[in-house]
C-alpha cells in the first residue's frame, strides 16, 4: 500500500471479521442429515465509535464502506444520527462495534452531542477538497472537549483522497492539526476507492483496546461501559435515531 495512506504516529493493527455473526454448519448424525443451529459466539466486548465532521465530508460513506462495503454516489444528508453494527476480531477477542454516524449540519448539534459521551473512539472527518471543512475542525474539537469522554481515542481523517487533483488541504496541514492535539492520530482515506477505511476503524479499536485491561473479571466488566447491553444504546430523553435513505 502507498505510504501516503498509512496511518500516522503509532503502530499496530489487526484482522477483521466482516460478519455480524458466525454461521453454523449442518451436522450429520447417525446417517441422517439434521440442521443443528449453532448459536453465534457472543461478543466479548461492545464499543461505541462516533463519526463527526462538517456536512458532506463523507461520514456516512466511511461508515457504510466499513460496515457493508458499499458506496453511495448521491446520498442524502444524515438527519440527526444513524448507526450501524459491525463485529471485528482483534487480539482473539470478538468486538461488537456500534458506529454512530452524525449529521454534519449545525442545527442537529443538540441531538448529536448527546452521543459523544458514550463513545470510546471519535473519528473527526474533513474533506481534503473543501477548505471550509478543515477550517471547521476547531469547532468540532470544542464539541469534543465539551461533550466527549476525556479518554476517548481521537482520529482525524482527511477523506476523498481519490480527488487528488481537487485537493486544497495538504497532507501536512492535516498532520500539523492532529499533532497539536494530544494522542490524536491522522490519516487520509477515500470511502469511494476504499483506501484506508478498514484501517481507520481497526486502528481506532486497537488503540481503545490498548487502553483497557482485557482480562478483567467478568463481574467487573458487567458494570462497565464495555459490557454487553441491549443495543443500540440511545441516550435517554432522545428519540430513536432517524434513518437516512439514499
Ligand atoms: N469522491 C469522493 N466522494 C465521496 C467520498 N466520500 C463521500 N463522498 C461523496 O460525498 C457526498 C457526501 O457524502 P456523505 O457520506 O453523505 O457525507 P456526510 O459527511 O455523511 O454528510 P452529512 O450527512 O450531510 O453530514 C456524497 O455525494 C458521497 O458520494 C470519497 O471518498 N470520495
TrEMBL record:
One of its GO terms (cellular component) is lysosomal membrane. The keyword Transcription does not apply. One of its GO terms (molecular function) is GTP binding. One of its GO terms (biological process) is protein transport. It is a lipid-anchor. Gene3D superfamilies: P-loop containing nucleotide triphosphate hydrolases. Its cofactor is Mg(2+). Residues 1-39 are annotated as: Disordered. It is found in: Cytoplasmic vesicle, Autophagosome; Golgi apparatus membrane; Lysosome membrane; Recycling endosome membrane. PROSITE patterns: RAB, RAS, RHO. It catalyses: GTP + H2O = GDP + phosphate + H(+). Its EC number is 3.6.5.2. Keywords: Autophagy, Cytoplasmic vesicle, Endosome, Golgi apparatus, GTP-binding, Hydrolase, Lipoprotein, Lysosome, Magnesium, Membrane, Metal-binding, Nucleotide-binding, Phosphoprotein, Prenylation, Protein transport, Transport. InterPro entries: P-loop_NTPase, Small_GTP-bd, Small_GTPase, Small_GTPase_Rab. Belongs to the small GTPase superfamily. Rab family. This is Ras-related protein Rab-12. It comes from Conger conger.
Amino acid at each position: 500500500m502507498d505510504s501516503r495512506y498509512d496511518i500516522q504516529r503509532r503502530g499496530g493493527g489487526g484482522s477483521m471479521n466482516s460478519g455480524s455473526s458466525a454461521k453454523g454448519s449442518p451436522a450429520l448424525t447417525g446417517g441422517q442429515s439434521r440442521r443443528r443451529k449453532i448459536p453465534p459466539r457472543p461478543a466479548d466486548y461492545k464499543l461505541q465509535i462516533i463519526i463527526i465532521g462538517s456536512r458532506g465530508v463523507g461520514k456516512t460513506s466511511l461508515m457504510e464502506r466499513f460496515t457493508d462495503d458499499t458506496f453511495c454516489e448521491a446520498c442524502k444528508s444524515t438527519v440527526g444520527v444513524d448507526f450501524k453494527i459491525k463485529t471485528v476480531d482483534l487480539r482473539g477477542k470478538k468486538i461488537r462495534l456500534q458506529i454512530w454516524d452524525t449529521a454534519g449540519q449545525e442545527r442537529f448539534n443538540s441531538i448529536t452531542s448527546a452521543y459523544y459521551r458514550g463513545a470510546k473512539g471519535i473519528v473527526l472527518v474533513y474533506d481534503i477538497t473543501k477548505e471550509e471543512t478543515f477550517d471547521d475542525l476547531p469547532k468540532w474539537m470544542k464539541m469534543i472537549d465539551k461533550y466527549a469522554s476525556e479518554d476517548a481515542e481521537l482520529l482525524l481523517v482527511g477523506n476523498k483522497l481519490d480527488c487528488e487533483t481537487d485537493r486544497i488541504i495538504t497532507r501536512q496541514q492535516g498532520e500539523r492539526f492532529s499533532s497539536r492535539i494530544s494522542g490524536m492520530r491522522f490519516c487520509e482515506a477515500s470511502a469511494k476507492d476504499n483506501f484506508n477505511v478498514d484501517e481507520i476503524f481497526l486502528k481506532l479499536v486497537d488503540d481503545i483496546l490498548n487502553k483497557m485491561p482485557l482480562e478483567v473479571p467478568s463481574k467487573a466488566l458487567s458494570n462497565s461501559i464495555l459490557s454487553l447491553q441491549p443495543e443500540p444504546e440511545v441516550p435517554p430523553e432522545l428519540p430513536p435515531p432517524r434513518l437516512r435513505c439514499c
